[in-house]
Amino acid sequence: MSGRLTVVGLGPGSPRQMTPEAAAAVAEADILFGYAPYLARLPERTGQERRASDNREEIARAAAALEAAVAGAKVAMVSGGDPGVFAMAAAVCEAIEHGPEQWRALDVQIVPGVTAMLAVAARCGAPLGHDFCAISLSDNLKPWELVEKRLALAAEAGFVIALYNPISRARPWQLGRAFERLRAVLAGDIPVVFGRAAGREDERIALTTLATADPAQADMATCIIIGTAQTRIVAREGLPPIVYAPRSAPAAQ
User: Fold this and answer.
1) In contact, 68 and 74? CB cutoff 8 Å
2) So where are the chain's domains?
3) Which fold does the domain 4-114 belong to in CATH?
4) In what order do the strands lie in the sheet with 222-226?
5) Which of 27, 134, 183, 198 has the fewest CB atoms below 10 angstroms from its CB?
6) Model-level pTM greater than 0.90?
């Protein structure tokens, strides 16, 4: 087949944080598919078509992109952050698994990007310097009971936790419930970082504690990092504090 599909991670939003490989894949595409706000980050190019869709239409978007590539187009499917972290790479793979045989014959490539938790972590120090996990608070594709179970088990296991999709107009209550669940396991002085739009002009990084963490500080552009008892905070006069996880693991209890 002459067509191909490249799934591209655009990074957290700043053009400076898009990799050269990702920029090249976008520039070479005949057609761009993606969630409309992500497509809006990219400069328009003469002759390049854009097909935007809603963020809840991932499988349909993947199928449409695969069909366009089968028809001979060079297609780029764009995602914010990294396409393999709560994003379109998994949707494309799922569509290929369950779709027609011709989709399996396509040249499909995944181009990584800087995901939100890495961008937020870099802005405040190194809070992911030891074992960590990432959990999406969205229950669109899994039951909320499973989200709560994973939060509690991750906290009990001593993982630093990065929370994606913390809150939205349709899900205004879940972040508060998540904090309540974590407070039942973790001490109130555990550091919490709210990182919104890391690397962009409207960036907002805030450091607080689990006891005082307020869901109103977050929106869908926010990634939240929950520390552990081992997380360190280094105060600096006239400068933001450094938050980091020591590289040495705590002794087994």
Assistant:
1) no
2) 4-114, 117-244
3) Cobalt-precorrin-4 Transmethylase; domain 1 (3.40.1010)
4) 132-136, 160-164, 222-226, 191-196, 204-209
5) 27
6) yes
Which CATH number applies to 117-244: 3.40.50.1820, 3.30.950.10, 3.40.50.720, 3.40.50.150?
3.30.950.10
Of the candidates 220, 223, 222, 225, the one whose C-alpha atom is nearest the C-alpha of residue 35 is: 220
What is d(CA 86, CA 1) in angstroms, rounded to the nearest whole number?
29
DSSP states of 98-132 as a string? HS-HHHHTSEEEEE----HHHHHHHHHEETTSSSE
Placement of tokens 């972290």 in the chain = 85
| Tokens read off for 153 | 């088990």
Distance CA 229, CA 208 (A): 14
Q: Are strands 191-196 and 125-126 parallel, antiparallel or unpaired?
A: unpaired
Cα–Cα distance between 137 and 113 in angstroms, integer?
21
pLDDT per position in the chain (253 positions), as tens?
789 999 999 999 899 999 999 999 999 999 999 999 999 999 999 999 999 998 778 999 999 999 999 999 999 999 999 999 999 999 999 999 999 999 999 999 999 999 999 999 999 999 999 999 999 999 988 999 999 999 999 999 999 999 999 998 889 999 999 999 999 999 999 999 999 989 898 999 999 999 999 999 999 899 999 999 999 999 999 999 999 999 886 655 4
Cα-flanking dihedrals φ and ψ of residue 137, to 5°? -85, -5
